[in-house]
Structure formats: structure tokens, C-alpha cells
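Researcher: Last one for today. Full complex below.
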Amino acid sequence: MIFCAGKTVEHIKGIVAKMLEKGENILGTRATSEMLEAVKKLHPKVVCNELGHIFGITQNEIQKTESYIAIITAGTSDIPVAEEAAVTAEFFGNRVERLFDVGIAGIHRLYDKIDVIRGAKVLVVIAGMEGALPSVVGGMVDKPVIAVPTSVGYGAAFGGVAALLGMLTSCTSGISVVNIDNGFGASYIASMINKM
Amino acid sequence: MIFCAGKTVEHIKGIVAKMLEKGENILGTRATSEMLEAVKKLHPKVVCNELGHIFGITQNEIQKTESYIAIITAGTSDIPVAEEAAVTAEFFGNRVERLFDVGIAGIHRLYDKIDVIRGAKVLVVIAGMEGALPSVVGGMVDKPVIAVPTSVGYGAAFGGVAALLGMLTSCTSGISVVNIDNGFGASYIASMINKM
Amino acid sequence: MIFCAGKTVEHIKGIVAKMLEKGENILGTRATSEMLEAVKKLHPKVVCNELGHIFGITQNEIQKTESYIAIITAGTSDIPVAEEAAVTAEFFGNRVERLFDVGIAGIHRLYDKIDVIRGAKVLVVIAGMEGALPSVVGGMVDKPVIAVPTSVGYGAAFGGVAALLGMLTSCTSGISVVNIDNGFGASYIASMINKM
Amino acid sequence: MIFCAGKTVEHIKGIVAKMLEKGENILGTRATSEMLEAVKKLHPKVVCNELGHIFGITQNEIQKTESYIAIITAGTSDIPVAEEAAVTAEFFGNRVERLFDVGIAGIHRLYDKIDVIRGAKVLVVIAGMEGALPSVVGGMVDKPVIAVPTSVGYGAAFGGVAALLGMLTSCTSGISVVNIDNGFGASYIASMINKM
Amino acid sequence: MIFCAGKTVEHIKGIVAKMLEKGENILGTRATSEMLEAVKKLHPKVVCNELGHIFGITQNEIQKTESYIAIITAGTSDIPVAEEAAVTAEFFGNRVERLFDVGIAGIHRLYDKIDVIRGAKVLVVIAGMEGALPSVVGGMVDKPVIAVPTSVGYGAAFGGVAALLGMLTSCTSGISVVNIDNGFGASYIASMINKM
Amino acid sequence: MIFCAGKTVEHIKGIVAKMLEKGENILGTRATSEMLEAVKKLHPKVVCNELGHIFGITQNEIQKTESYIAIITAGTSDIPVAEEAAVTAEFFGNRVERLFDVGIAGIHRLYDKIDVIRGAKVLVVIAGMEGALPSVVGGMVDKPVIAVPTSVGYGAAFGGVAALLGMLTSCTSGISVVNIDNGFGASYIASMINKM
Amino acid sequence: MIFCAGKTVEHIKGIVAKMLEKGENILGTRATSEMLEAVKKLHPKVVCNELGHIFGITQNEIQKTESYIAIITAGTSDIPVAEEAAVTAEFFGNRVERLFDVGIAGIHRLYDKIDVIRGAKVLVVIAGMEGALPSVVGGMVDKPVIAVPTSVGYGAAFGGVAALLGMLTSCTSGISVVNIDNGFGASYIASMINKM
Amino acid sequence: MIFCAGKTVEHIKGIVAKMLEKGENILGTRATSEMLEAVKKLHPKVVCNELGHIFGITQNEIQKTESYIAIITAGTSDIPVAEEAAVTAEFFGNRVERLFDVGIAGIHRLYDKIDVIRGAKVLVVIAGMEGALPSVVGGMVDKPVIAVPTSVGYGAAFGGVAALLGMLTSCTSGISVVNIDNGFGASYIASMINKM
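Model: Here's the assembly. Have a good evening.
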């Protein structure tokens, strides 16, 4: 795993080259477009996700799980974090179902997808602003929900603090929380659980 | 109106007596049990609500509205604030419908009441913890929602701050917010709107 | 409605084109100058407000209300938020009266306008810094006041927090609050009330 | 000067006795009822103010000023801080005018007193909740205003923080601020200015 | 489940009696000693844990899991939260291993227990003060860690905020966080995972 | 007075031209270099202070005071705020003494200037970081001290919050505080006092 | 070492008895008066300090150092923390010089003691309110200063936060900081340094 | 010492030139690349550290200590602060051992270096995110640990606040803390101690 933020393109290229030599699988998060461009040239099978600022290189195939992780967002602005989560989950060999833009302001959109939601073994639920989606989803299933607050919003959203507090104080049982915008971390845990 | 908090029982009795003489209608909020006991003895028609720490004396009858204010709470711990709101609304001559303990962890309880919710002219929605109920209710109606955060909760609820921020950053349109635990203030506005 | 912040010009153009085809009315908030330029070319009747970072396209005429919403600001720096509010209100078919730069440091300016203030059916009051204008206006009328804190100010204004707290703790009854800089949200509610 | 908070009655009695011996003038702030009772017995001319939790003993007469300090409060709950301020100012030989409960929710009450307000050489303005009174008073006079936030209020008042921020970010010139509930400190400064 | 905080003893007795009649299993958290005393008299098989302020009544036996949940605390002051977690986990039929007072100031105590730690299917790690224990434990295992910050500590611990922030920003992968002092919530999730 | 921040150069030029015509004295704060350049061309007697981001135009001479305001800074980084204060004070006709870079880390530098400090009628004391200079200066004189916290510093200085809190809680009497970086506001008050 | 806060008297007695048996030296901090009474009866040589809520039992004599630790407080209200620090330092065999109530409001009191201050090998400087004393002391010596913020103060002191921030942002070099009210921790470090 | 932040390149060159003339040793912190380039041309023996944004010029040789300061970081992103600390320590004549990227997520890397850690006379431990490394290191040695929180991290790291609170509330004795990112300050203290 490489946390690319704050590193130079040259530095990233160096680390990737070294890991490729060792035959390791590589996941790079918080990568800029320049980094993604540079990495693409290093290997034929790089999976790049511009939206999620993430890339993955799988030198050793991992068997896909049958059960899946549902990755759900409240709005369209949460999608970058969701893509970081989704690519991470897939990198670790998990089947993923994406349900984006199903926030609680129009709760029927959520109910339309209830079968996909209930079919998941574990759920990653991502929301900014008031961050209430995990509470609602958690009330619909009896599975672990990993909640990810995002820094989406303005004013009293305080860069994700409103969503973070909302998720921590959720009145629904079965919800645990990771750091603001931490899509990678949420899927890392979800993958552990999905593979049990 | 009398804000009783921080005043003595004797002080309250004095204010009430003076207002009774003038023939005014009287509403007292944040009253202790001792204050309620004392006030009951001053007039035969005192409406006392222990749960809501509130009393009202109506010397001049106000005509009841046909339209009603729905007062909705997420949990049972929010009921004291809801009763402050309900008694206030009734004091000002509004018809009130109470819907308590219909929080988003079990959203079906909310949907069971959809007719009462949609029938209101204006809604006061009260919630502690993550304070997400106004967002969900606001998505179900096309009426003004006055949201009241409560100080219910512990830890990251920070005495109502989590609920307050959640309500201010709601992704649902049509929601405005009053101070933490301010049931009176919410109904004061709701009454203005209901009587239009 | 389109919340333009964080989207690309191309994305906005796509959404607008699709909505135009469906014959819908369109309101776009938090639009950059580039977005406004691009949208102007898509339809002959686009209402663009640079100051308010907002545009509207009305394909289906809405009848104007007789009653009006007063939109009041404390200073000149609050005008962008006020224009977002005003264009929103007009888009929904409301008559609007603008009263700008009538803050409490020179309270006579406010009193000079008392007839316009008292004539409104509902008021949107917008202020940064200490955010005290809604309290004063609320004391002058018996109508609902929707208060909008702005991020105007420096130092202990903390990006709108001082104004937000001031409005939430107002000693005047009849005031409810929306998120910092949320002119759109305030007028959405005011429009609901004005049309009753 | 003695800051009595956190000291024992015996300790206070000891300090007062020692200062009496030296022939000094004595001012004690934040004194409990027990302390006031105890101090009364130590000297025939003790000025005790229960509301303001303050006492003063003047062994050396100070000449009263002709000019006066106006001490103004927004509500009745701010009176304890105001009395601390008033007794302090009088102790230092200043003439004082008290204007209590003239908050901005009903601004006419303030205008009724405009002559007393404009006649002062310096003003101490005390308010809790949103703390907007100093801004309004400051706009009415061309004299220094010492603003005192109080811890009066609940919820988003955060023990005086809302009032403090409001006063610091006031859009009126001529206002400086002291610590929350610091009536003594405000009058200490006001006295320096009034005696110039 | 019953969240007892803020309820009366009579209220609790009523709820328990009703649930007993229905033949349900009952778990009561945040119960005072008086509540525990009262509940003991209602049923012969009440499991009471004074330290954890929790009781459980199992009318329908649940089969114990073979795999276990490790419940680990940094200090002795974290034990009440740990007991809430442990009794909750056992109530849901999980085998539990308690490892208390193995904080990072003396990290060898933690290493002495490495077999028990590595043998768990999921871990609940509880810490106040700087809340660093989950990071260290998470680095020793490849299993999901549910981290619980506690309100233990003084000064800059800010009632659990320091621990909460520490856990959210942990540099170890595989850690998710619940609300301050929420032992029940952590074990609810851990139980879901342990039973997979 | 013109608060230039957030305005355009053209806007500033327009306001200045209009005020010049009316024969008024003009003070412009928070002006950029471009604004200062533009204003210089509008009048032969513009006083420009690049460091203080401030300009003044005096069309009607004001008589200089005999007594003076001491303007004191802790460090060299506080000088921009100090120059805003100094130019403001001089604009209003006050004699000013500047004492810069005499912070408490080397307190002897402060004592070397004790005569200038004690000779002032009122003092403006400016400091960032821990903001302790006003406390020390206040202990050396029996005159009103107007304290200005600055946003100088990093980390736990939190943009001036550390200095602000330090000044508000000063154990020295005679200190009142204005907003972070508000050199203008401090001198406005100091001028009122100096001219008494 | 025993951190007594939150433990029962019986629990403390048990721990002390067990440690006495092992022949260990014992230091108990944050002890209530009841605990101190109870511990006194367990051993003839208990050192009890009511003010500092601390006791020590030395079964194995430690040689006193020649160099000394200066323990300095700003006010009298800081003395409890100072006594915790002083007893701790002495318990570890350090010579201690106490300089209490020498805060910066009257800086001459500090200068009167300059020889004792400069003679120390390391200094523990304790202050509440604005917490500026360490900065001033640090400017007078070329020795490590361990700064202890205290929770003394009200309003914007925020339970020690103002002092904590002030000490962290001190413009004087050579100062490091411990937790609010942590007299024990400061002396633990000072003892390490003094014994080098 | 020169704190370069916020100064111009020309200003820095002037200060350095003046100090060179006086024959003084010079240390410049928070220097930009441009400043480093400019300073290099002023003297043949400038020590420049790009990573640490620091330069030193030693005109008078200082004898190197035998004992050493260990400078330890949790991650690679903390290295800039660590280099500021290391160059500072060396400038003052201390022998330094650098141990970088030995954070607690993989605690074995720390144990591999236990001899270097235990051999130090004093330690500077630098960490961002949850800031737990000083607690672990402090538990391994009986030497003073100076902890430096860094602004490394995102979301709930809040620019170093999470690390700062974690270090202040550490359950390990012997740790004191400096401001966020203050590598210079930590080494200044460590040097005092190392030279005893």
C-alpha cells in the first residue's frame, strides 16, 4: 500500500518500480492525475480510477469472493471517496456493489434498492453534510455497517465534523466509523469481514 | 411569557399574580416542580405539564385552528422538549398532533404515520443524538419543518452539538433550526405559520 | 435545482441541456462566472446574477404572489448571499423587497424602512460578524424571520460561527436559522410560507 | 481587592481583618452569602450586595465623580454581573447610572433611555445569549463601550461563548471586551476612563 | 435492549416486566445500582454487573460461539466500559476473553498475552487518555478491531475527545471506532462479526 | 472610514473620489498594494502605509493632542497590525509613540522603555502567539490598556485564538480586548480616551 | 505510584498495604481527605499534603540532590498543583525551592527572587488564566522550564485551555508543557533532569 | 536564531550579513528554497537542509557532546520536522542519532532499535496522526522524552490537534510537549538537557 499524498511523482515511480520487482501487489491511494499517468506507463495491467485518486496493480491474482460488499453514498459529491473504497475492496478480491446518490432526502431511492442492500455481507456507507445515511441503512439490515464521513459540504459541515459526529452518535446499532474521507480504511475492514 | 429558569418560586408567583390581575394569558417555560405546584394554587384553570416543565393560563379564550402542527420526536428522551413545544402551540390556539418515538433507526414506524405527517400545515421535528429525523421527515413533505436539536445523548453528542450541526447541514430543503432544547421557540414560529 | 459547486462547466451544461429538454424550470446555485457564461448560451431567457453566483431558467411561468418576502442584509459584504436568496425567491414566483446595508451599528437606517419591513409576510435576514440583525428585526415585526449567518468577517468571526451562534441564541422569538451562507435554503422556506 | 472564589470563609475573614488594620479600602468579589455574613460582622460600614456577590469597605473616603458610568444590561438574568460592576464602580468613587433589562428584542425600551445613555462618559454594557446590546448601544453614542459577555443562556450560548464572539466581532466601532461575567474588570477600566 | 439512563426505577421495572411476559431476552445498559437491585427481584436468572452498570435476562438460551471476542483495556479505569462490552457480548452468545490493564506505557504486558490476542476472531479495544492501544493491538493482528474511546482522564483528555481523535486518525489499518464509552455498541458489532 | 477587504480597486477609487468631493477626511484599512497605488494618484496628500495596508487623507486638519497613545508590539511580525493602529490614531489627531519588538521573552527591552510606557495616557498593546505582553505592560502602568491579539504564530496559536484567550483571561486589571488583528478598532477606542 | 482519583478508600488502603509489604516507596496523587486520613494510619512515616491531595511513604531513603528544582506559581490558586509537584519532587529525592504567587501582573515580585530562580537546575512553572509566567521565567534563565497549565480561572479560561495554548505558543525557547493540572508529571520529568 | 517564516529573501540576507559581521553563529528555521539558495552564497560553510527548511552557519566551533540525542519519527511525512530538530541539535554541538519511520503500527521496527533508543541521554519523538509514539518510547526508557506533534494527517487529525492532545494525555510518565511542528523548540530543550 502506498499513501501518495505529499509525495513527488518521481518518489511514487521509484516505490512502484521496486515493488513490481519484488512481485508484490500494489495499491496507491490519494494519487494525483500526474501520478496516475506516470504509473500507467510502468505496467500493462494498472487499474486507474481518476475519480477515486487511486490505482492498483495485481501481480498475483486473488480469488474473488462470492459474497459482496455494498458501497453506498448519499450524494454525487461523495463518489470520489466511494471509488477509493470500491477499488480498494476489489483490489483485495471482494465482489462490490455500488449504490450511489441514494441519500435520505428522497428515501424512496434507497428503498428501491433494498434487495441489493440486504444481500450484502457488510456495507460501507459514505455521506457528507449531516451524515445520516448510515443510521437509515443500519436500520434496514442486520449486518455490520462501516460509516465514512466525507468533507463534502460548507458552513456548519466544518469539513466533515458534522457528519462524523452524526455517525458516532447514531441511534442505530451496528455502525462503526472511520476517519473523514477514509474510503480506503473502510474497505480494508469490510474486506476482512467479507472474507470471514 | 415567563422564562422561569434561574428565578425563585416567590419571584414566579409574583409575576404570575401581577399578570393575572391584568387579565393576560400566561405561559411559563422551564418551570421546576415546585414552581408548577405554586402556580396551580393561583388560578383554577392552570394547564401544567410536568414532563415539559411548562404551565399555561388562558384568561382570554383563543379560537382553535383547523389546520394542525405535527410535533414529532425521534426518541422517548426527546419528549420533555416535545411537550414544551406542544403545550406552547396549544396555548397559542393551535391544534397539535403528537408523534413520539418514530426515529430513523426503525423507519417503518415513521411511514406508518405518513398520513398524519402529510396532513400537517407545519411540522416541529425534535431529535437528539445525530439529529437526522428532520432530514427524513423533510423529504416526505412539502411543508416548512422547524427542527429542534436536543441535548439528549452522551460522548460525541456534545450536549446537542452533533444534532445541531446535523440539522443545519441537512441535505433536505425546507428545514430551519432553533437553539438546542428550544421547544418553545420552535412552536412560537410554527404557530405564526399555522395561523396564516 | 442544481448545486453547481465542485462540478465542471461541461457537467453543468449537460444537466441543464437535459432539464431543458424535459421542459423543467431550472435553478443553479454556487455557479462560477464560467458556468454562467456557458449557461447563457443554452437558452434565451436565462436569468443570471453574477453577485449571487446563481442562474434561473423559467420554462413554465409561475404566477407572482401579491404578498412579498423582505430580504434584508446587515452590510454590503452580505449581498452575494442576499442575491442568492432573492433570485431563488423570485424563481419560485415570490415578490421580493430588497433592503441592503441596514445593520445595527446605525439603527436609524433600519427604522427608516419600517413600513417595508412590517409589510412583508415573511423575512429573510442576512448578517455576518456578530449576526445581530435578525434579533432587532424580529423585535419589530410579528412575522417569521429566517436568519442566515454569513461567513463575512475575520478573526473571532470564525467563518460565520459567531453569527450562527448569535442567531441561534437570539433573545427575540420568531427566529429560525439555516446554514452559514445558505441564501437558497432560506428563500426555499420563505417561499413555502409566503405562498400559504 | 480580594477574589473570593475558591477561598474559605475563615481565609476571607483573615485577609479582611489584616487589611482593616492597615487602614486600606477593601473590595471583595465572587463572595458567597456565608462570606458576606461573616464580613458584615467585621466592620460597621460594609457595603454588601447579595445579587452581585460583592462587598466593599471604604475606610478612606474617595470623592465622587461628577461624570457617570452607565451600566446597562440586556436582561434580568444579567443583573448579578451588573451589580458586581456597579458596586465596583461606586467603590472607586464613580457616579453610576443603572439601566437594566433594555435588550434589543424590544429596542424601544432602549430608546426611551437615550438621554441617560448619551449623558454617560463611558458605558459598561452587559449581555448574555447573542450579546448584541453593545453593538446597538455603541451605535447610539460616541463614547467608549466596555462590553461584558455573560454566561446566561443555554444550548448554543455555550456558557457565554456566543456572546463573547458576538461582542468581539461587533460591526460598531468603539467597543472593547472583557472576560465572560467579568463585571469587576469592566468597571475597573471604566473607572480609569471616567476619572480622566 | 433498554437504555436505562434518564429513566426512573419504576419505568425500568415496567418495561422489564412487559418484556418478561413476552418471553423475550432482555439487556439493560447504563443501569444504576437501584435499578439493578429492582431488576434482580423480577426474575431468578438475572445477570447483574455492577461495574458495567448492566444486566441481562436470557429466557431463550443462545448457543455459545466457539470463536471468541477479545475485550482489551488500557487501564483499570476503563473496566466499567469493558464490562458493559463483555456482558453485552456474552448476552448475545459470544465467548469472551478479557484482557484488562495492558496499556502501552508498559508494552511488555501486552506482548505477554499475544496468543490470546491473536486467537480472537474480532477485538474490542478500550482506552481513555491518548487512546493509543487500538493502534498497537491493530498492528499485532490481522482481524477487525472495534475501538472504544473512554471518558477517562482529565485536562486535555476533554472527556474522551483526545482518545476519540487518536483512534480515528490511527495509522494502523483495520480499526473502526464507536462513540465515547459505548461498550454496548462495540460488542453489538463484534458479535455480528464473530458469528459470521 | 472604508474597510477595503473584498472590494475591487475600481470600487475603492469610486468611494474615495466621492468622499473627496464632499470634503471629508478618509481612512482606508486592509488595502492591497494596488489600492494604495491607485489612491495615491487621487490626491496630493495621501498618507500611505504599505506595512499597515492603510491610507489616510486629511482634508480638514485636526489639532494634534499633547498626550500620546503608546503602541507596543511583542514581535516584528505584529508590526503590520501596529501600523494599522498607529496610522489610525494619527489620522484622528493623536500623538503616537511606537515601541516595537519588546516582547516578554526578553523583558529587559521592555523595562528600558518604561518612561515612554508610563508617560502614555492610554496604550494599545499588540501580540500574537501566547499574547502575554498586555498583562505585563498592564502591571507596569495605571492606564487603560487596549489589547490586540494577532494571527501571528502557527500550530496551537490557532490563528490568534491562543492570544485572544490569553488576553481575555489576563490576571492584570485594566485590560480590554478587541478582535484578532483589529488594529483600527483598538486605536479608535484609544483615540476616544486620549482626547478626553 | 498510585493515581487515586476515582478509586475507593478501601481500594487505596489495599494497594498501599500490599506495597508496604513489598517494601516499596509509595506516592499517591489526587487523594481525597478521607484517603489521606486512612493512609496515615497505615504507616508511621506518611508524608501527607492536604493542599496537594498527595501522600508519600519512603521505606528506602533516597539521597537528596545538591542541585534543586524551583517550583514557581503565578497565583495562590495554583498552589494545590504546585504542592503536588513539590511533594513529588521531594519524594524522588530532589531539593525543592518553592516560589508561590509571583505572577506577571506585578513582575517586580518575580525579580526580587531572581537569584533563587537562576540558581535552579530545572524549573517547574505553574499558572492558570493566561498562563504567561513560564514565558517570562524562561526569558530570565538558560535552564529547561517545565510548564504546567492549571484549570484555575473562569469564562474564557475554559478550564485551563487558555493557559495550555499560551504555554505551547510561548515565544520563549526552552519551555515544554504537560497536561492541565499535572503537577506530578512535571516533577517526574524535572527530577529526571535534576539528577543528571 | 532567525525565524524566517513571513520574511522576504532580502530581509533574511540582510540579517545574516549583519550577524556574519559580528562573528556570531547563525541558525535559520522555516526557510524557503529561495532563502536557502540566497544564504548559501553568503558564506562558504553554510549547512543547508532542504527537507527541514533550515540552515546553520557556525563561525565559532562548538565541541561535540559524547552523549547523544535520539530523534525519532513515526512516519516518513514527519521527517521535515525531524530534520529541523536534528540540524538544530547539531548546530548546538550535540551528537544526534536519527531513527525515522518506526511508528507503532509495526512496533517490531521500534524494538529492533532498542539499543539506540536506550543509549540516548534525551529523546525527541515526533509523530502526527494519533501521536502515540512518544507514549510507547517513553515506556521503553527512563529518560526525558520531548514530544513533537506534527500537522501530518487529514480529517480528524485537525492539523496536529489529535496528536497534540494524545501527547498531553499520555499515560506514560516522563513526556513533555512542544507546539505542533516545533522541531526547533524540542531540540533547544533537548540540547540544554544533553549538555548537563
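Residues 142 and 179 of chain B are 23 Å apart (CA to CA). Chains B and G do not touch (no CB pair under 8 Å).
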